[in-house]
Structures are given as structure tokens and as C-alpha cells.
Design goal:
The model has no long low-confidence stretch (mean pLDDT 90). 28% of the residues lie in helices and 37% in strands. The chain has 130 residues and is an alpha+beta fold.
């Protein structure tokens, strides 16, 4: 009887994991493949803005920023952490500054390395003091 309950519980857990995985893969942002043109606006600490345009075959924003030399950072447990953009460093430990990512005019809910790029997308990296 006890083994039967354990088996049923294990089956239920496996079924829940399968359903959750299905929902994740169905709901994740779509990725566009092929040549895309994107724009990235950088807003520096002094408020000045600089715009960049890139043509890319990359599926996500992070690799574009790194390959083009616009951003520098490192991969950590939560993905790419951007420390330098267009030569300007943001240091949370120094003055609680960081580079905020916007997709269009909306604050991004994803990190740069998990933000899909589609042709015509515009992004913004804004020097922000927490």
C-alpha cells in the first residue's frame, strides 16, 4: 500500500514537470532567424544619448552587444551581467549604478542574453543609479 502511494506521487510529479515544461516552451518569446537590423540607444550617466545600428544573424541581444564591442560583461548564475557600455563603466559596489535594459520603451523582463532579437527591434541601455 505504501509503495503504491509513492508510485502515484512520483507519477503525479513527473506529469506536473512535463506540463510545466510544455507551458514554458509554448510561452517563451519567439526567436527570429536570419538577417535582422536592430538599433541600440545608449544613455550615458551625463544624459547624452548615442545610437547604434547592427545587422545580425544572432538570435539574442547579448551576443550582438558583445560581438560588436558595445558592451562588456561576464556570465554569471543569472546570465550576462553588463558592466561596461560604449566605454562607460557602471559599478554597483561603487555607487549603486548598473546598465538597465529596455526593449523599446519598456524595462526588460529578461536579461540581454535571453532577449530575442527580431528585425526592426529597438533596445536601450540606460546608465542607472539604483
Amino acid at each position: 500500500m505504501k509503495n503504491k502511494k509513492i508510485l502515484i506521487a512520483a507519477i503525479v510529479i513527473v506529469a506536473l514537470i512535463a506540463v510545466m515544461a510544455g507551458v514554458y516552451f509554448a510561452a517563451r518569446p519567439a526567436v527570429a532567424e536570419g538577417a535582422k537590423t536592430i538599433s541600440v540607444t545608449v544613455v550615458h550617466a551625463d544624459g547624452s544619448e548615442k545610437q547604434f545600428q547592427y545587422r545580425t544573424d544572432e538570435e539574442y541581444l547579448g551576443p550582438v552587444l558583445l560581438a560588436e564591442g558595445l558592451a562588456e560583461g561576464e556570465n554569471g548564475p543569472y546570465g550576462l551581467t553588463i558592466y561596461v557600455v560604449d566605454g562607460e563603466k557602471a559599478d554597483w559596489n561603487e555607487n549603486q549604478s548598473y546598465w538597465a535594459l529596455y526593449i523599446g520603451e519598456e524595462y526588460a523582463a529578461t536579461g540581454a542574453d535571453s532577449t530575442p532579437v527580431k528585425d526592426g527591434d529597438s533596445f536601450k541601455l540606460v546608465y542607472t543609479i539604483g
